[in-house]
Structure formats: structure tokens, C-alpha cells
Amino acid sequence: MTTQQLIQQIQQKKSFLCIGLDVDLNKIPKHLLEFDDPIFEFNKAIIDATHDLCVSYKPNTAFYEAYGLKGWQSLEKTINYINKNYPEIFTIADAKRGDIGNTSTMYAKAFLEDLNFDSVTVAPYMGKDSVEPFLAFENKHTILLALTSNEGAFDFQTNPEVSGFEGKELYKSVIETSKTWKNSNNLMYVVGATKAEYFTEIRKIVPYSFLLVPGVGAQGGSLQEVCKYGMNSNIGLLINSSRGIIYASSETDFAQKAREEALKLQQEMEKILKSN
Amino acid sequence: MTTQQLIQQIQQKKSFLCIGLDVDLNKIPKHLLEFDDPIFEFNKAIIDATHDLCVSYKPNTAFYEAYGLKGWQSLEKTINYINKNYPEIFTIADAKRGDIGNTSTMYAKAFLEDLNFDSVTVAPYMGKDSVEPFLAFENKHTILLALTSNEGAFDFQTNPEVSGFEGKELYKSVIETSKTWKNSNNLMYVVGATKAEYFTEIRKIVPYSFLLVPGVGAQGGSLQEVCKYGMNSNIGLLINSSRGIIYASSETDFAQKAREEALKLQQEMEKILKSN
User: CB-CB: which of A76, A145, A151 is closest to B125?
Assistant: First the structure.
């Protein structure tokens, strides 16, 4: 999918919502456990109930790997279901991969070609040759971890003790350096919503890039704040919500309740889009 | 496996060799492709031929994920085969994972509990709460990326522009900070062999920790140099070789040739151990 197609979808749906499909068998409605593949049944119901309110789905691969072979099968079925039935959706494999060149190529191929996701999240620690193999895929996107929404983000990403010249924090160095890599136009960035004050700084470095923003809702970030400082003329934001939507109910009405939560966010987003 | 058991194994086998099982269907002998699971057949033959010369096997998970479900099946069969037949071997899932706390817990469970690896490699960028869930497993080990063997290591890990107080490079901050984390005694570190001059610096920070050293052989590092600067009184090193051993031949004699290459390294290691 091209960035232009993503922007068009956002304008049509009046939404820049991404729904995180982080499926935990302990949290899904009990009646689904009778199915042969409860994870896929859960995802299918959530997707069917919310696809017109969001522009993106983001399965975190850890939740699937945790169930071994069966989990990978559920992931495959989920991405295939989305690609077949809702091809307009921007799909994100939240895998946070990154390795030496030839190994990153294997990961890139697995997620962007074989599973046919539109994008994959990648960790920056190993630098240029660990990320460029992901960037080589045309009309696919690499979402680089820049500023994450967890407490540990302060350990290195924003820690003044590991800041360089003129007090430049690591997350800024990561974003700046990544702009020099080959096919860097295929880059997006993960920027946690819990630190809205950082969006101004990041927009100085990458005014035009899309930012994937976790941490709205369960992790405490404010949608209004993020949009105020992070939005650009092409919107440039994908706001992720996982638990707040998919676990809105643990009863048989879970898909309907998920829709209601997604609708609340979509309506808030529509208001923000109108007022800009 | 406890660190003490690993040290005992090193002393018994007179080897601190780790063999990387990075299996690529394009590189293995053609006759294996007739088997139902060529990757497992290849691994089984390599393991049977080398298990007395090495103390560790390290499958890089990317190579297995690249083959989807079948790849995961090969990985499961490989780790089960090692655990059943050679329980003294220290197994490493080279997965380079790392995510927010509850998600890292999923990864840790998948690799350390379900697949029952002795250790897993983890990326440090997301900090403390992304690593501690791995450290929580008793007698399991978390091998943190510190200084990798690829060119991109210079982008952030050793880059003076992202060095902090008194010019401290990022890789040093990562190692120092990690020592303050809960159960940090379960930490080991990835330190690339292409930069032997850094071992002295690292040993000032973690004199007693085990270091997993990729990059000897194909990537150009020298075993002698690494041992000179990196070895401690408990050896404290696991030297990885992948391609140089497992692809020594692409004919039916591949396992025998792999043994010969492993033997060369083991004998070099035995000499080094004697002279210390």
C-alpha cells in the first residue's frame, strides 16, 4: 500500500485509528474457547465489527508466538482474512525485529512478502544495515522504534546520560540518522503517546512522516494532546488502541462492545479532523 | 541450566564453541530437500556430528520464521532433539526480542518455557521493563545485545555523537544500566568479535559475565584476539560460528566437514585454555 492510499483511507473513513490485535486466550470470551482456533474467531469477529471505523490492524506477534505453531497459524489466518476481505486496511506486523543484514532480509521477507503485511515494526539498536533490508520492499513500510510508551524508554531513549552533542537524546539521533538510509521514504516511526511534549521535537526532524502512536487509553496518553503536537497536513498519525477496544467486554457481545469503543475514538478523531 | 553447569561443560569438552544453526534451504545439500523436513534433517546431522566439540547451539529464529509454519515446526523439532539427546548443551534462541513488559513476558514464556531454550537474545532499546520479564526465569539466561558485529553497530552503539557524559558510548551505558536491573545475574551480553579492542572496556564493567561473541570467521574476527582481551577466570566466552561450520560442504559429506571445521576451532580453543 502506498502512503497516498493510506491518507485517502483516513480521509474517507474520517479515522486514523489502528486496532491492536493482541489476543490473550485468558482474556477472550469463554465461549470462543470451544472453537478450533479461538484466536482467529476472536479476531474475525473484531475485524468484521470495526473495519469501517479504523484504517489499520496491528497484531503484536508476541501474542501469537506464545502459542507456538497454533499461534502462527492464527496469525496467518488473520492477515489473510484482512487482506482478502478488507484490502484497503493498512496492516502492521508489530514484531520489533532487527538483526544483521542477511538475517533482517529473512525477517523482511517473512513479514512483508510471505505474510504480506503492509508494514513491520523494527528496532534501531543495530543500525543501518539491520533496517535497510526492510526498507527495500516497494510500497511497504518500516516502522522504526523511536520513542516507546513504556517506562524503560527513559533508560536510553531520553536519558540525558546517553545524550550526545548539545544534549541530543538518543531517540532524536535515531530519527535523524534513519533519514540518511536508503529508501528512507518508506520509514514511519513509533512514538509513544505518553510523552506528548516530545511530538513538537520529533516534528522538527520528520515533519512529513507517519507516526504510529501506542499508549492512548490503557497506557494513559491523550488523543487531543497527541494530535495538537503531532498531526501534520497529511494527518501523519496512526493512533493505536488495543485492550481498550478488543477487551471492552468478555461476554458474547464482545464484538459489539468493541465497535462501540472504536466508534467513540473514531468520532473523536472526526471532530479533530473537522476542526483542523 | 546454571552458569556453573555451563562452565563445567566448557572444562570437560575443552571448548567454548557455539554453533549457529542458521539454516537456509538454498545453501543446504540438495539431497536433503527430498525429506519432509529438510531443515530438521540438516540440523540433526550437524548436531549429531558436532555435539561433543561445542557447548552450545544457537538457532537464529529469523531463518525459521522465514519458512512460516513449517519453519516453526523445524525449530521446535530441533530444540526438542537437542534437549532430549544432549541435555548438557546450552541452547540459545537468537531472537533479538524486546517489547513492553506484558509483551516481553509473552516472548520470554514462548522461548524459555514452552520451547525450553536455556537463553534468548534480547534488544535493549526499550529499557528495563522490556528486559526484566526475561530475567525472571530461574536458571535461564538473557543475552542482551551490547556491541554487535555488523557495520550498523557504529550508527548508535559506538557513535561519539550519541555518547553521553565523559564520552561514554551507548553500548557501555547499556551494559552498566543493565547491571541495576532485577535478576541481572541472569544476564549475558552479545559482543561482536570484529572489535576486539572493545573487550578490555567491557571487562571493566562486567568482569564476570559471559559474553556471546559472533563474528569469528565469516565476519572476520580473530579468536586469539577475542580471548586475549575477553576471557576471564571462568572463561566467560561463548564463541559463535555459523556459516563457517554448517556450510563447510554442500555435498553428502556436509556433516563430516562440519565436524572437521568445528574440530579446528575446538583444538584452537583447547590450546588457548591450556596456555591460560
Answer: A145
Predicted confidence band of residue B13 (pLDDT cuts 50, 70, 90): very high
Which residues 45-64 of B have a C-beta within 8 angstroms of A? 60, 62-63
CB contact under 8 A, B152 and A76: no
Predicted complex ipTM:
0.94
pLDDT at residue B219 in the model: 58
pTM, rounded to two decimals: 0.96
Interface test with B, best of A77, A104, A126, A149 (most B CBs within 10 A): A126
- Considering only residues 4 to 43 of chain A, which have any Cβ-Cβ distance to chain B shorter than 8 Å? 22
Out of 3.40.50.1980, 3.30.70.240, 3.40.50.2000, 3.20.20.70, select the CATH number for domain B3-154+182-275: 3.20.20.70
- DSSP for A127-141 reads -HHHHHHHHTSTT-E
pLDDT tens digits, residue range A77-115? 999 999 999 999 999 999 999 999 999 999 999 999 999
CA angle A86, A91, A96 (to 5 degrees): 165
3-class secondary structure, B239: strand
What local confidence, expressed as pLDDT, does residue A221 receive? 67
Phi, psi torsion values for B96, nearest 5 degrees: 50, 50
CA distance B240 to chain A (A): 14
Segments of chain A assigned E as strands: 17-20, 56-58, 90-97, 119-122, 141-147, 187-191, 211-213, 237-241
Q: Which chain B residue has its CA at the smallest distance from A72's CA?
A: B69
Q: Is the pLDDT of residue B162 over 80?
A: no
CA pair distance B95, B93, nearest whole angstrom: 6
Q: CB–CB of B15/B227 below 8 Å?
A: no
Neighbours of A170 (CB within 10 A): 27
User: To the nearest whole number, what is the mean pLDDT of chain B?
Assistant: 94
Residue A218 in this model has a pLDDT that exceeds 70: no
Quick one: pLDDT at residue B155?
Answer: 93
The C-alpha cell at A258 is 468493541
* Calpha distance B137→B40 (Å, rounded): 28
**What is the third-level CATH fold of A3-275?**
TIM Barrel (3.20.20)
